[in-house]
Specification:
The complex is a heterodimer.
Chain A: H1 5-33, H2 42-67, H3 75-104, H4 109-137
Chain B: E1 8-10, H1 12-18, H2 24-31, H3 35-42, H4 50-60, H5 64-67, E2 68-70
Antiparallel strand pairs in B: 1-2
Classes of the chains: A mainly alpha, B mainly alpha.
């Protein structure tokens, strides 16, 4: 892969967060579908998913660092990150607005919490995808 | 001459060849960016900052205009 260490790091972060979200939703989605309306049952699930993500991040970066010497972030890496952040912020904004709308309509807190958390992580996924597009197609 | 997705073209690949077949990594180390960034500049996928452009010109001891050429895109 003709990619810099920074680009490979983005791949690792994207993969880790997708696995984290997937593993969480595989268990949480059926709970939500079965009308579990209390938040506490979801907390240990979420913590376990975050721990899994952290483990994947550490392991992935160790593997990549063994094969690719980290060179540090240069101006292109910074520009790609800033542009991706700028162009992915709308996902979080939509999630927050949806959560506010839900509060106004007295939707259960468990759904509000999930909309907020999912919009945060989805905006991060969009940011990583954009970074990878900019690395490949140019910025 | 490098293909360009931007309106800035450059002669970096040619200049590297004529400077002892300098590699992209060697140029990158001299100007303080990654090899992949040098590759992206040569392919027109990235326009460097003014400072990096000047550093590249200094490496080849050429005026900026001999290394980079700007073609205004028609409106």
């Amino acid at each position: 892969m003709n990619a810099s260490f920074e680009e490979k790091s983005v791949w690792i972060q994207l993969l880790s967060i997708v696995v984290m979200l997937g593993s969480y939703l595989v268990i949480a989605a059926p709970m939500l579908a079965n009308d579990v309306t209390a938040l506490p049952p979801f907390v240990p699930l979420f913590i376990a998913a975050v721990v899994l993500m952290v483990v994947m991040l550490i392991a992935g970066h160790i593997v990549v660092a063994i094969h690719s010497r980290p060179e540090g972030r240069d101006e292109r890496d910074q520009l790609i990150e800033w542009r991706a952040e700028s162009n992915s912020g709308w996902v979080l904004a939509v999630g927050v607005l949806a959560a506010v709308a839900g509060l106004v309509m007295s939707v259960d807190n468990v759904w509000i919490a999930h909309v907020l958390v999912l919009s945060l992580f989805l905006s991060t996924v969009v940011r990583y995808v954009l970074q990878l597009v900019y690395y490949r197609r140019g910025v | 001459m490098a293909r360009s997705g931007t309106s800035i073209r450059n002669q970096i690949r040619t200049l590297r060849f004529h400077h002892g077949e300098m590699t992209q990594k060697e140029l990158a180390d001299q100007i303080g960016v990654t090899r992949q960034t040098v590759n992206a500049i040569e392919l027109g996928k990235y326009s460097p900052s003014l400072e990096v452009a000047f550093r590249i010109s200094a490496v080849f001891d050429k005026p900026l205009e001999e290394v980079f050429q700007y073609t205004p895109t028609p409106k």
